[in-house]
Design a protein that fits this description.
single chain; about 30 residues; mainly alpha; about 90% helix; rod-shaped
Length: about 30
């Protein structure tokens, strides 16, 4: 149980990082 919760949090952090990277790239593309 503890491990699955940890992996869920880890997956969520990785997902957030990807979204932040995508949004940053998108913003840089449209606001040079």
């Amino acid at each position: 149980m503890k491990e699955s919760k940890f992996f869920k949090i880890l997956f969520f952090i990785c997902y957030l990082k990807r979204m932040i990277t995508f949004v940053t790239a998108f913003t840089l593309l449209y606001n040079p």
